[in-house]
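Can anyone check this?
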Amino acid sequence: MDSIRIDKFLASKIEGISRSKIQSLITIGRVFVNGRLIIDSNHRLKIKDEISINLDLQPNKFDLSPNANIGFHILYEDEDLLVINKPAGIVVHPGAGNRSNTLVNGLLFHCGNSLSVGTDEFRPGIVHRIDKNTSGILVVAKNDWAHQELAKQFSTHLIIRKYICFCYAVLFPLNDKVETFIARDRRNRLKMSISKDCGKNAITIYKTVKTFSTFASKVECELKTGRTHQIRVHLSHMGHSLIGDSLYKSKNYYIPEKIADYIHVFPRQALHAYFLDFIHPRFQQAMHFETKLPDDLQELENILSENAETQKFR
């Protein structure tokens, strides 16, 4: 089993369990290699690796009860789907370390049984996701047919997703495309990192919207692929970590002293999924959604503007 994906290997060795179920078990923290937790289905096994796996797939391992206290703003809803604006601070679906109080619990309260099953019983309705501390637009499927049709649009890159973020310093060039491979970081399994020889292809197109002297920028990023932490990884790799992103902050950045305490302890990555375009699977009509910055990011922009010479590019 030299250099084989762990999900593929386990699916071939365990009868009666699909590869997608194996991937779910990995995601929720049920698989260990040589005593170390593995949460990446792309993990490559080596000869003499020892694998342990908990095959208990009972749903009661996660709390999937409806929860009226999970707040989100509905932008659009019909019999097939809904489009929501997720606040920062809410995990999209249950997983290792987040077994309850997720967006899924709020969706179950709102939709009842009218959510797609999809490929994972722990992620009803979830076609795509954004990080806990990223805010913004998500489309949710209310039946399996809509889920499959939307998933096809994601897999063929027909869906347009754009984000606004605030990063340190000024990017050069101001506008460009970043294309790399992204894989799970070998030293810190909570992180993703740029890889030369493995991982998944990741493409981000960025455009500088506004600069704040030379110490910060407002940037629009369009995802051509949807890899985990993609924007955060790409900008950090370029030397321009997102403000508030402690996981990917690669160095100490200069900020004027009078606002340094505010900027350096900003409580979440300054990233908002503000734009989503897709084709409605039933009506075959173009659906366009756009949201303004949430209050915390608007306050961040105001403070940066008040303490810097600004230049707009859009």
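Reply from J.R.: I decoded it. The chain has three domains: 4-55, 62-155, 161-278+289-312.
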